[in-house]
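To close the chapter, one final illustration. This time we ask the reader to focus less on the individual chains and more on the assembly as a whole: which components sit near each other, and how the overall shape emerges from the parts.
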Amino acid sequence: MKAATPAFRAKYDEALTSFLEEREERHLRAAYELGREAVMDELSVLDLAVLHHDALASALLESDDAQAVTAAARDFFLEALSAYEMIRRGFDEAREAAALERRHAALLRQLSSFLADASLALGASDSLQEMLQLVAEQTRELMEAEECRVTLDLGHGQRVDAAAADVDTWSRLSHAEVIPAIEHRRDEDAGGPRTMSEQLMTLDGRSIGSIEVSAAEFSELDAALLGQLAQMASAAVERRRLYRGT
Amino acid sequence: MEAEEVRVRITHDADLVPARAEARTLAERLGFTRTDATLIATAISEIARNIVVHAGEGEIVMRAISEDARKGLVVVARDEGVGIRDVSAVLEQGYASRGGLGLGLPGARRLMDEFRIESERDKGTTVTMTKWRVRDELELIRERRQQTNSRPRRSDVR
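The assembled structure is written out below.
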């Protein structure tokens, strides 16, 4: 941040005096331009406030209508501050973008541990159901979704399903009850959560199932994340198929 | 009355003044606070400046719109300049890119409630932006009462 130069101070005094003499838009425009100049010259908003206060104090000494001068000076100051308001809102956006990036990084870390867990599940258990359950639970948690359902088609009419739901929403349901409840809700509640799905694919591009999530809303990041999770789940299923011949 | 439009031709820097003045008058008529009127005037200054710098000339059209629960001021700025090659990049300027302080179009976007840019290479750019004011309960009651009073009474109808 830089201090106000004497030239800037003089311009501000002059512009405020002109506005107090003639309440015209062109002088308010001058105030806005001075605020813009102050932002571009990295003048602190505190310095601008002091500068304005000094200019107002001088104007009040020469006026016999303090109320009118103060009200007009407020309008002038608002104009000068509007450029700072633009910057402040930009800062808020930057802060939100940084928070989103942090969440993204945390999700990626969780993804890594998810991959490790899926591999462990493959080694520790023969149960395909158990592995899909892990996929459903991790996906729901990573995407902060209300529900997640994973379906795997084994061929010859055989199918394996797994589902996970937000504990707060579905706390009273057992695993066996969650799938019918999701289907019922989808049919009954058209205005409910939105649904997004990805196919599970074999290495040669054949569809072997799907992973579906429901949430109040999805971001572009969620779509990319679901794609990544579907690829990882597909790879885990393929590994199992190759090693165990199922 | 609500469909009334105000047009300001923008051909040089000095045209920012009438554009700002018209916006302020309309904002005050619609009941916007002084702070919001200032933000609208600032957003208009930024898009008018953009027209002067990048297209040379254009126009700004302002109009009032009204819904049940809110009133709005719509600003449409048109030019027939070279257009904007990458609208997203321009709007993200100031936080996503290293350049810029976030004034100009991204600054205007942040001051308004709705903001849309349509741009075509060598054909021009149209910026549409809206500021809304939520109508309070007292205002709605007064309006309903006014409507009731303006209806012809049964005794007046023959």
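Residues 32 and 80 of chain A are 5 Å apart (CA to CA). Chain A touches chain B at residues 25-26, 28-29, 32, 36, 39-40, 75, 78-79, 82-83, 85-87, 89-91, 93-94, 97 (CB under 8 Å). With these observations in hand, you are ready for the problems at the end of the chapter.
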